[in-house]
From TrEMBL:
Entry-linked Gene3D superfamilies: HUPs
UspA domain ranges (all copies): 1-143
Cited CDD domains: USP-like (cd00293)
Similarity annotation: Belongs to the universal stress protein A family.
This protein's name: Universal stress protein
Amino acid sequence: MFDKIMVAIDKAEITNKLLDATVEIAHNKQTQITLVNVSQDYVSNGMTYVPENFLEDILNEMEKASWEQLHQAKSKLNSAGINPETIHLKGDPGYEILNYARETEQQLIIIGSRGLRGVKGMMLGSVSHKVSQLSSCPVLIVH
């Protein structure tokens, strides 16, 4: 049914559920799977006493952690017989996921829910909510 599926991974606690859903959907099909992780492209310097190279180091560590998450997720899918592409993006996660999905004509986005509810969800927003509302393709939100 879906030939191109994008899986937006984030935190490890939900990633396994996302990958399990991906295996179930893509199993025994010629489906192109793309694993995507987005890290921030800036850290605001609100404290004047923090050296600029420290903030740069934080961004580098975030990117390194992003690639590690992608590598671990790819290994799990490889063990299930699926060879996904891995993409690391920088910026606002919701925007980057939507933009990449649109540019590459994805047919399904699989994304996790952090479970933000009530006031916290209203104030902080939710990447999965934003993606589900603005996506031009179906979105599967895994809890």
